[in-house]
């Protein structure tokens, strides 16, 4: 199994450009998440989807939108990229709502906004 | 709220022990521990639920003190492969939906 797959792995944008980060999981997980990781800040939750058809804001949602396309796919969109959005983005998934469930992470997308 | 991890960084020689702490200002239902190697995704180590549970895997173990809202990760007889950044993730809800809030991480370097 591939687990959690993110595309692209690297991306360079100019300020104001838009793009969509793609994430897909093949583990039949109900819950999916987008985190960003900045040096010294740890992983911060941007948006999450508890189950297909639902999305909610996390800790740092400003400047982002998400779409839970189906049970497998959860995309993150930057409508007008800003240098402050330069970061490494991780998609993650887990089986469901139970707190004993571990997260499975994708390999990350390194995004630079110039 | 983001849990607080300490220390920020640890440098060890192979075979030495280390303890990484994670504390929260809110009552915790569970604590997760993950390790991330440079340029890679975080990888799950273990989950501890409230009840003072202590778990272990190989020479890495952890404890959870729900009264103090703290968890500690113990690395015994460290190996070179233990190098990386360790994150604790905390959950504060025990019903409905909850999300993981991660600490800023503790960088561990094990040298020969």
Shape of chain A: globular
Radius of gyration of chain B: 14 Å
How many beta-strand runs of chain B? 11
The chain-level mean pLDDT of chain A equals 94
Strand proportion of chain A, as a percent range, falls in over 45%
Helix content of chain A: under 10%
Name the beta content range of chain B. over 45%
The poorly predicted ranges of chain A are none
Largest sheet composition of chain B: 6 strands, mixed
Name the chain pair with the biggest interface and residue counts per chain.
A-B, 23 and 27 residues
The shape of chain B, in one word, is globular
In a few lines, what is going on in this structure?
The complex is a heterodimer of chains A (114) and B (112). Chain A is mainly beta. Chain A has strands at 4-7, 10-13, 19-25, 31-38, 42-49, 56-57, 64-68, 74-78, 87-94, 104-105, 109-113.
Explain what the structure shows.
The complex is a heterodimer of chains A (114) and B (112). By secondary structure, chain A is mainly beta. Chain A is 0% helix and 51% strand. Chain A has no helices and 11 strands. The model of chain A has no long low-confidence stretch (mean pLDDT 94). Helices cover 0% and strands 54% of the residues of chain B. Chain B is built from no helices and 11 strands. The model of chain B has no long low-confidence stretch (mean pLDDT 89). Classes of the chains: A mainly beta (114), B mainly beta (112). The interface between A and B is medium-sized, with 23 and 27 residues.
């Amino acid at each position: 199994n591939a687990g959690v797959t993110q595309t692209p792995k690297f991306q360079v944008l100019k300020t104001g450009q838009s793009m969509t980060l793609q994430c897909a999981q093949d583990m039949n997980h109900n819950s999916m998440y987008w985190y960003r990781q900045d040096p010294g800040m740890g992983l911060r939750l941007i948006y999450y989807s508890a189950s297909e058809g639902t999305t909610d804001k996390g800790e740092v949602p400003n400047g982002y939108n998400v779409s839970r396309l189906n049970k497998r796919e959860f995309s993150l969109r930057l409508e007008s990229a800003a240098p402050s959005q330069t970061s490494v983005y991780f998609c993650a998934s887990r089986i469901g709502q139970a707190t004993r469930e571990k997260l499975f992470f994708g390999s990350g997308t390194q995004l630079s906004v110039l | 709220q983001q849990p607080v991890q300490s220390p920020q960084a640890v440098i060890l020689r192979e075979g030495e022990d280390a303890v990484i702490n994670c504390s929260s200002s809110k009552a915790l239902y569970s604590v997760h521990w993950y390790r991330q190697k440079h340029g890679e995704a975080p990888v799950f180590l273990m989950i501890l639920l409230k009840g003072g549970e202590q778990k272990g895997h190989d020479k890495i173990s952890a404890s959870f003190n729900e009264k103090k809202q703290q968890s500690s990760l113990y690395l015994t007889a460290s190996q070179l492969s233990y190098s990386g950044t360790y994150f604790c993730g905390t959950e504060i809800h025990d019903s409905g939906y909850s999300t993981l809030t991660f600490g800023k991480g503790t960088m561990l370097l094990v040298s020969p």
